[in-house]
Structures are given as C-alpha cells and as structure tokens.
Amino acid sequence: MKIKGLLVSSCLALGVLAGCSGDLNVSAEEIITNVLEADKELKSYYAEGEMKFFEGDTLKEAHLMKEYVNENGKKKVMIIDKNTKNETVSVNDGKELITYDKKENKAFKIDVSSLDLPEKTQREQLIAMMEALKDTHNYEIIGEEKVNGFLTHHVKLIPKEKKSLLGEMEFWVDQKTWFLVKSISTVGENRSEIVYTKLDTSTKFAEDTFKINLPKDVEIKNIDEDLGQRIGTIQDAEKGLGKPFLVFDEEDLTFSGVEILETKGEINRTEVSMNYLKEGNPQLNLSIFPAPEGQGMEIAYNGLKVRGNNAEYMEEIDALSWDEDGLRYSILINNPDLSLEDVMKMTEKMKLSSSK
C-alpha cells in the first residue's frame, strides 16, 4: 500500500467514529441531545473488522483489521490486505504515531505530542460530526437492525446539495455499547465501508501492546521532516511565499504563531498556516499558499465574493477560500458562534503582513 493510502487507512482505523442514542420515534436532533446526557462511555476495547473501498460496483481494496484501544487513549491497529496479505501496524501512544509496513520494511513516524488534540470518545466524535453537518445534511432514522449479532440503530445522513464534499453517510450503532458497528460513506462513485465482526470490552492490555518492535534494518521516515514543517515568524513566512500576504487585524483577533509547511514532489509549494484566538479561545485558521494554476484550478464565480474576488464556501467544513494577488487564502472557522458574514466582514479589514 502506498504511503497516502496507508496513512489514510490507519487514521480511519485509529480514529473511527462511534456513538448514538435515543428513541427512534424522535428526531435526530433529539437523539443527539439524549446521547449527550448518556452515561455509557466506551474507552477501552479490542475489536476486529473489515474495511472495503469501491469505485462504482468494483471492489478496489479489502483489508482485515484488528483494533486495540485502552482507557488512556493509546491505540493500535493492525491492517492486513486481503489480496497481497501485506500487514501494516499503526500505534498512537499519545506522543508519536508510527505506522510500519512489513512488506516494504518501512516505518513512518509523526510527532503528535504538540497537537494538543482533545481526548474524545467515539460517541463524542460522532455527536460532534452530526452537529457540524446538521445544516448541510438531512437525518433519517432507518430503524433497528441486527449487524453481525449486534442490535443497532441505523442512522442515515443525506446531503442537501448534490455536489457534497462529504457525500452520503450511514451508521449502524450498537445499542448496548454505542459502538459504531458499521459505517458506509459514499462520495460520487467512491464508497468506503467499515464493518466490525467482534467487540470485546473486558480485555486488559499489557503495556507492550502499544509498542512496535521494528526490525533493526527498517527504514524510518519522519513525516514532519519530510513535509518540512516548522514554526517561524511573519518574516520567515514572507520569505517562503516570496511576498507579503494578508493577515487579520489584531483588534479583532490575536494570532498564536506561524507554521510554515514546505512540501516537495508533485505539490512542491510553501504553505503558511496561522491560528487566531480571541480571549484565548480558537477562532480561525488562516492558510496561504500560491494560487494553483492550470485548467479548472481557479475559483469560479458562484455568487460569493471576498474583497472583490471570486470566493468559495464549503459549508460542511466551514471553510472560505479566495485568490488574491497570486495567493490562495483559505479560512477554516473554528468557533461555531462565528457566522460566514462575521468572517467576511473581518476579511475587509485584513492588512498586508509587511505593515505589521
């Protein structure tokens, strides 16, 4: 499996979503509210399942999966390609995420200690996702169904727009443990399925469960170093982009630092990322990189403009993008209380970084 597919599959397995609750005669919104008040939490378990990826009706990939999660948030996933029999192992111990490909004898390492990610249960992740999609998707409660011996609630999320970035999703949630037994995601002709066949919530894991014993001759790649990611200054960012760039007025927001990402290979670009806070709380993430060139890469006019430029808003992920003076600006809205209109007003007050 190539690195991109390997990492995507590993991240899916290590961060799989689960959890739902409530009376099937009430709305999905009421179900979410009931789940928030539920006592059940699945923090430690061993599970086995299968992942499948389709293009149309054609099965492109199929993988067996074993998943270990302890109460401290450590996770280990073993994935076996049913076709090639190759095995990959991924472990997240809270400090590093390491993925090892046995056939290639290569390991990929990512530092996750500085990410400060909130520890959310699977139930909490699903609730957060459903809340985020309530404006872009309609919910349908299909009913109770048995899946591999689990009695589940079947919930369907249907996009309101045809060209949805996230597409249609279905979840089958175990009523006893609120574990996500089965999920299907369909975007265009592509469909992914994850189905669990076994769940053990009583297993006690030895400490070495969440360690990878790598061969002495293994090739280890540090993904952070390969990406060229570093913390820098506004001046460093200007140098990387080759020109000054727009930043938010600090009367409205305070930026908490600059990250500079220098990717090589096919993309081969410098990207600047800035997180903005207000009273210590995350508000926005601003990313800037050279505007992509080529047919179909420009942002077409669809009724939205920012600072006089054609703009695109992806409601599902609360992201606003536009091109200006050879740079593409992308804003990810982190504060749910900030509306698109609020952010667009802030963009009108943006200033060039060299004026800071």
TrEMBL record:
**Keyword presence, Endoplasmic reticulum:** no
Q: Which residues form the signal peptide?
A: 1-18
Q: Which UniProt keywords apply?
A: Signal
- InterPro entries assigned: LolA/LolB/LppX (IPR029046), Sporulation_related (IPR052944)
Q: Does the keyword Signal apply?
A: yes
Q: Which PANTHER family match?
A: SPORULATION PROTEIN YDCC (PTHR37507:SF2)
Protein's UniProt name:
Outer membrane lipoprotein carrier protein LolA
Q: Which organism is it from?
A: Cytobacillus dafuensis (Bacillus dafuensis)
